[in-house]
Write a structure and sequence with these properties.
The chain has six helices and six strands, in the order H-H-E-E-E-H-H-E-H-E-H-E. It is globular, with a radius of gyration of 17 Å. With 153 residues, it is an alpha/beta fold.
């Protein structure tokens, strides 16, 4: 019960704080938890970023991103891998991966962590998420469109 109240209080503080204070609060939380994860805000791009080891991921939604990456980039990638059963497939350099509804490109990040040089094709309609996708999946084939089984908007 107390843990839930603290989590809700923390999320409330994230929501009302400016980007720099939010990152400071979250970095303090990470330090207390013993995690080697650093959150930053880039004023130029107006995007948040999280860094762990040699990996960096950008995100646009402050609270969503700070909660998504609160255990780190590697943890997030491995969670997605389990969800989508990525470990059940033998991937090789040069394989083509198509990610529909790519969000921030976390699937591509998993392949980077695994050091598998795939060709990544992504589709993400959200302008904010696509902006992050472009930063997170440089030199890949990223498309800002929605996919559907129907013609039209």
């Amino acid at each position: 019960m107390i843990k839930i109240k603290l989590f809700n209080l923390f999320n409330f503080l994230l929501k009302i704080s400016n980007p720099l204070i939010s990152c400071l609060l979250n970095n303090m939380r990470q330090k207390i938890m013993g995690r080697k994860i650093v959150f930053k805000y880039d004023k130029k791009s107006k995007l948040f970023g999280v860094e762990e080891n040699n990996f960096k991921v950008f995100f646009s939604n402050k609270v969503r991103g700070m909660n998504t990456y609160s255990y780190g980039i590697v943890h997030r990638a491995n969670t997605l891998s389990e969800t989508y059963s990525l470990d059940l497939v033998n991937y090789f350099d040069g394989d083509i991966i198509i990610d529909c509804g790519a969000n921030y490109g976390d699937i591509y990040t998993w392949f980077r962590i695994k050091k598998i040089g795939i060709k990544y094709i992504s589709f993400e309609p959200s302008p904010d998420d696509f902006k992050c996708l472009e930063f997170n999946c440089k030199n890949q084939s990223n498309h800002q469109i929605a996919l559907s089984d129907k013609i039209g908007e």
